[in-house]
Specification:
Two copies of one chain form a homodimer.
Chain A: H1 2-22, E1 34-37, E2 40-43, H2 50-60, H3 73-83, H4 86-99, E3 102-109, E4 112-119, E5 130-134, H5 149-158, E6 161-165, H6 177-192, E7 198-203, H7 205-219, E8 227-231, H8 243-246, H9 258-269, E9 292-297, H10 303-315, E10 320-325, H11 332-335, H12 340-356
Parallel strand pairs in A: 5-6, 5-7, 7-8, 8-9, 9-10
Antiparallel strand pairs in A: 3-4, 4-6
Chain lengths: 359, 359
């Protein structure tokens, strides 16, 4: 059985090379266009938690695609509505709150919708600190309570008050709405808290947005946060990172999602240059950034975005800590909150914020 | 052309699934044995140096294998001799020394062959410090001058005296000879230098050996180094890390090398349990380890060994810094010493050692 698979791969490899040989405009013998990787069966890894193994096993039998790409604003709205049914979102948030108890209050700051997530009485560890959270969801999903789950995890694991920004999104409000809304909330938060006592961060699009907000605060000469958390940041909306090729069809969460994400990114950019650092912060200037903690996994579709940001921070002389989890796919630490890896990840974030935020 | 490739991949995927469905002993519908990844063409990444791009392009047209696996001691000797022709090794070392000038002296310490690599006069930055270097080469190659190149790079980039241990190896001297020889040299070095002023490390098998030596020093209750450098450590000779599957045929240096490395590991283990922490230190106890810096790349066959060691160090409360370079294969930072990534990597090592070693 295995030998058949191996045999098939070799045929695929040979066919691939000979096919490439015909496409002279694209490739010639001396300069290969890239590396041809044969088809493989990736075993469920042994040295990770049961929870992560189960997730990998389940994803392996799921369809290898995020679905067809919406083409119009209404199709985008329909696709999001399908992913985020209000009843299911509410149940999901209640389930998370049951395991990770916090108080959640909906409100507005500077006219922007926010959720304030407070640790339970007694669990609060640092009353003069706060964390501004920007949710993920490829800049097209995660509105309202659908963007709350990681805010809850951060409040629970760090003992800090978290202000989750329910920023405006496409198709109605493309870039720079998300950046502007986050900056507006930031300005309100630092009227009550010393900026050095406040962290800022998020995961995926939220990780990228957090980095973009710091770039924008630098432009505006506004005070910067005391520390940044960039969880597997979508820092390059052109998806030019190498892991978008290497980990395509490897990542459990974003497998086969390259075109889908690119389309979402184009909706977000709304005609602006995708390489604008406020859209794709990996192309920005990281000098004078606050200390930054970055998380990713070896199977993460955005592993490369994460490590490229880490390297650019280090080249700019910034204190930046990178944590890469074995066999984790995109944002597994947030979506598998019961796993030991998730607790370990948020413990690193809590330690990092505690070390770098003012008191 | 591209569409044909994509089409072929879809066929491969479908075929793969249906073939798996027939092999009930290995797989059933509810519990997939793993994730089937279709064949892909990995483009040369855009956001890395010209040197790294060239290396990736060259490797893509090289045979995708380390060659046939030697079966007898004489076949191992012949394979090593083929890789390491004395004339070529000498030329290689001279070329490295020309670009990264240092003084090299061959000698013995505690009866073990060593090379002492000193920075040039004026380039020495820390006379009371030293670095004990253990070379890589899968525990079967890198003897004599063939193990010198990274020792030269470390002496040059850190300004420290480097003692490179020419430890005994299989087929003549399997485990624990390499550990014993390194411990013997360590004991000699700390007769002249404070242990807290001395670093220890290496790349690949050398990275794994450095970790094993610390585990052994703990067993012997001997003083530990002030800091450790584990460059893409071969810390699991059973190759159970997930990247040995994900990055197989992706890594430029070790592509298709899994069986070859496992065979080399068995020669090294010489009948001992491959999961013995002194052979595969990822299975060891990392409590009380010195501060450790780890390097790897997103295409590294041993990415998982590196990040697993990092996580276990962190879980043991050890200060451990991880650096992952975009699209780097196994040990590219050492084998592409002219690349900006290499200089960046050794700069991180120099900063880390300078911060953590005593003065």
């Amino acid at each position: 059985m295995n030998m058949k698979l191996v045999g098939m791969c070799l045929v695929t490899l040979t066919l691939g090379y000979s096919m490439l040989g015909c496409a002279d405009a694209y490739h010639n013998e001396s300069t290969p266009a890239g590396r041809l990787v044969p088809s493989r069966l990736l075993p469920v890894p042994s040295d990770v938690s049961r929870e992560l193994q189960d997730s990998i096993r389940q994803a392996a039998s799921a369809p290898d695609s995020l679905g067809s790409i919406p083409a119009t604003p209404d199709e985008w709205r329909a696709a999001i509505a399908m992913y985020e049914k209000p009843e299911q979102v509410r149940e999901h948030v209640e389930a998370i709150k049951e395991k990770f108890p916090v108080h959640v209050t909906a409100g507005t700051m500077a006219g922007i919708k926010v959720y304030v997530v407070n640790p339970m009485a007694g669990a609060e560890r640092s009353g003069r600190r706060a964390f501004v959270y920007v949710h993920g969801g490829a800049y097209i999903s995660g509105a309202g309570e659908a963007g709350l789950d990681e805010a809850i995890l951060i409040a629970y694991h760090t003992g800090m008050k978290v202000i989750s920004v329910d920023y405006r999104m496409p198709p109605d409000s493309p870039f720079p709405a998300a950046v502007d809304d986050s900056v507006a909330v930031w300005k309100e938060v630092i009227r009550e808290c010393k900026p050095a006592n406040v962290g800022l961060g998020g995961t995926s699009a939220g990780g990228g947005l957090a980095l973009a907000v710091v770039l924008r605060l630098k432009e505006l000469k506004l005070p910067l946060p005391g520390a940044i958390y960039a969880g597997t940041p979508w820092a390059d909306l052109t998806n030019s990172g190498d892991s978008t090729a290497v980990n395509d069809h490897v990542d459990s969460a974003l497998s086969g999602g390259n075109e889908w994400l690119l389309a979402a990114g184009r909706w977000y950019a709304g005609g602006h240059d995708m390489r604008d650092p406020l859209i794709s912060p990996v192309f920005g200037d990281f000098s004078k950034f606050p200390p930054t903690i970055l998380l990713t996994g070896t199977r993460d579709f955005l592993l490369s975005d994460t490590v490229r940001v880490h390297r650019k921070l280090r080249l700019a002389g910034v204190e930046a800590n990178l944590h890469v989890f074995e066999a984790m796919s995109h944002a597994d630490y947030a979506t598998l909150p019961d796993s030991p890896e998730s607790r370990e990840a948020y413990r690193e974030i809590a330690l990092f914020l505690d070390k770098h935020l003012g008191r």
